[in-house]
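Forum: Protein Structure Q&A
Topic: Joint prediction for protein chains with partners

I've read a bunch of threads here and the consensus seems to be that you should model interacting components together rather than docking separate models afterwards. I'd like to see that in practice. Below is the full input, 188 residues plus whatever partners are listed. Could one of the regulars post the assembled result?
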Amino acid sequence: MVDEQLKRFRSSIDNIDAAMILLLAERFKIIKDISDYKLEHGLPPMDPEREQEQIARLRQLASTADLDPAFSEAFLRFVIAEVIRRYESAVDRP
Amino acid sequence: MVDEQLKRFRSSIDNIDAAMILLLAERFKIIKDISDYKLEHGLPPMDPEREQEQIARLRQLASTADLDPAFSEAFLRFVIAEVIRRYESAVDRP
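Posted by a regular:
Agreed with the consensus. Here's the joint model:
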């Protein structure tokens, strides 16, 4: 049997995870729009300079929120890797 | 020069990423509380059954939000791996 305090903690974790999943869903919708827009306007799919700026900004934000900046960077890289994976599998498809 | 439409898209991505970083910061605070609470009450640090429930729930939520369920699972596993890494390095420390 799980005790009441542990249940409360877990309910908060579940709410936060649900919020993050919904934000990720929204993020991928916008990424799809960006990807279509870039294709339409002949813009390169990736922009390493932009990526560096995003990482620097999130590391800074993580610091102020008391989150390990290295984790925030790993997190963004994880999400970007998924974006690239989807882009590549979309391009491979005829 | 980045065009205005691309700037708008990117600003949305930046807002979403900032929100996720703040949620992650909050999540890790609660994980710290859970970890302290479990230690104090002699509860085991990990709970594989709970983890399976979390994954199933997030996959379901991802489906309804039009996000790839496999990605939502990979995302949760990524976050849990970080939790375990922190737990282990905390235990290793004297």
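Chain A touches chain B through 47 residues (CB under 8 Å).
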